Amino acid sequence: MSGFTKIVFKLHNFLDRNKIKNNLKFKPSLTSKTLVFAHRGSKSNCPENTLAAFHEAVRVHADGIELDVHLSLDNELIVIHDEKIDRTTNGKGLVKNMNAVDLKKFDAGSWFNPKFTDEKIPTLSEVLKLLTDLSFTGYLNIEIKTDKFDYPGIEKKLSDLMKETKWPFSYIYSSFNFDSLKKIHTFDSKAEVNYLTKNLLTLKSHYKGSSTDFISGIHPRRTYAFKHPLLLKSSKRPLRLWTVNQETEIRQAFQQHVAGIITDFPERALEIRREIQDQSK
């Protein structure tokens, strides 16, 4: 038996022995089929993490939408992926060093296509309003971007915002930062909390996510998940893979019945899912 195979079986035994308190009541619709989450909105044909991208994700009927939140200098929840605005706007600098009103001055769309010149960096409140206005009823996956900077108070501010309204959609949290997940669970204990991981091979992150009661699901990098399917089968928590873009990988994810995929191409992923469902009838 190879060294890696021994690790896999040790993990499998660990999960079985501890049972991981699988009495957590996951919503059936979150686990009954492989859901399609639009990564930063529909970023294949719109500038990522903009209102246009989220509008497109709703238009194609994505099951879920994934976005990223940071905290501005004046403590506003800002929707953008990077810590700096350089890559996705015509400005430069760190989000945490600018007020929300100043962040709004930059063009967040032209880098992708000139027709998106009017797109701005949205606040989370603006995204929530848009999704409500569009009657979105899927799942919003909010990634707390504290893996590089520790934004003091972001978890409390985020949970307060999400709990203050009964949204037409459901929401879940995710993060690479385990401490942020602990904090958000303390503030919003009814919400699903998901642990983002890059590499399960070390087993450290997988053990932590699988053996902690409040962790509802695990979001691993798709390359590692596909390379080691035994670990997928041994997990007792729902797995949602990121970022699944190649058609062969999208089909593989559906065939392995993972809980969800996070993709830049939600419309195509949904088409593939329908094709597979039609073939199985």
From TrEMBL:
<feature type="domain" description="GP-PDE">
    <location>
        <begin position="34"/>
        <end position="273"/>
    </location>
</feature>
<keyword id="KW-0378">Hydrolase</keyword>
<dbReference type="GO" id="GO:0006629">
    <property type="term" value="P:lipid metabolic process"/>
</dbReference>
<dbReference type="GO" id="GO:0008889">
    <property type="term" value="F:glycerophosphodiester phosphodiesterase activity"/>
</dbReference>
<dbReference type="Pfam" id="PF03009">
    <property type="entry name" value="GDPD"/>
</dbReference>
<dbReference type="InterPro" id="IPR017946">
    <property type="entry name" value="PLC-like_Pdiesterase_TIM-brl"/>
</dbReference>
<dbReference type="InterPro" id="IPR030395">
    <property type="entry name" value="GP_PDE_dom"/>
</dbReference>
<protein>
    <submittedName>
        <fullName>Glycerophosphodiester phosphodiesterase</fullName>
        <ecNumber>3.1.4.46</ecNumber>
    </submittedName>
</protein>
